[in-house]
Each structure stands twice: as structure tokens, then as C-alpha cells.
Amino acid sequence: MNFCPKCGKQLQEGQTVCDNCGSQTQAQVNVVNNIINHNTNNGGSIKKREIVTSVILSFITCGIYSIIWSIFINDDVNAASGEQGTSGVMVVLLTIVTCGIYGIYWAYTMGKRMQIAGEKHGASISDNSILYLVLQLFGLGIVNYCLIQNDLNRFAD
């Protein structure tokens, strides 16, 4: 038997809104939390992305798609490594606000986190943090995206 957390009225099985006071029940809160978790983490799954297509789209859109791609990459690395790191949108915002400095730090940490993801999934991925750092410093972030996406595709469903 369930009772409304606000007014205490008895609720029927599976009822998500109280008929008496209109408040959400714990069942409704659980449904909403499951939807939010599924949308933000994509259910923990990693989507395989075509690298050549992503690079072409990045050039055609004058870099706009590369921003979107970096968000996907960041969130997929979070899922693959099992770490709750900075969200992809926040990485883009911090990179813009710091005039690219955070992007350099991000590239370095991606190398470390991809190694953790490799260990978690039983794949041999070396620590490429220095390589990613140097490429980012020379303005070759899109090469980083390609290298990271290549490793992420190994974990894709």
C-alpha cells in the first residue's frame, strides 16, 4: 500500500499523482529520474560514430559540428570510464570562457580517462594525454577528436 507523501491519502497501485492534493508520488519521481538519467547518460551506452563523416561535417559547418562532436565525445568518455566528469556542454562553455585554456586541460585529461576506460573494458589503450595536449596546443583539436573517437568506437554497442 502506498500513501501520498504530502497529504497521507491512500493511493492505488501504480498511481503517480494524488487525487486528493495533486502532488507527485514517489513512483512519479522515480519515473522522472529514470527519464532524466537516460537522457543525460544515454543509458550508459556509447554510440559508434563515423570519423570521416564527422570531420567532413565539421568542415562543412565551419566548426559548429565539431563543437557538437566534442560534447558527444566527452559524454561518451564519461560513460566508458564510469566517471562522472564534467558534462560536454560545460566543457564547451568553460573552453569559451577561458579563451581555450580549459580545452587544453580537457585534451590532457581525455588521455588519462581513455586509459581508464580501456582498463575497464579490457582494451589496451595507452595514456595519450601528452599527445592530446601537444595536438591541442598546435590547434589540431580535431585530430584529438578523431583519435578519441577511434578508441570510443571500440566500446560502442
* Residue share in β-strands: under 5%
The rounded Rg comes to: 21 Å
The tally of domains stands at 2
The ordered string of helix (H) and strand (E) elements is EEHHHHHHH
Distance between the termini: 40 Å
Low-confidence stretches: 35-43
Largest sheet: 2 strands, antiparallel
Short recap of the structure:
The chain has 157 residues and is an all-alpha fold.
3D architecture notes:
With about 160 residues, this protein is mainly α. About 20% of the residues are buried. It has 2 domains: about 40 residues, no CATH class; about 110 residues. A two-stranded antiparallel ribbon has the order 1-2.
Essential attributes:
157 residues; mainly alpha; 2 domains; two-stranded antiparallel ribbon; 7 helices; 62% helix; 3% strand; elongated
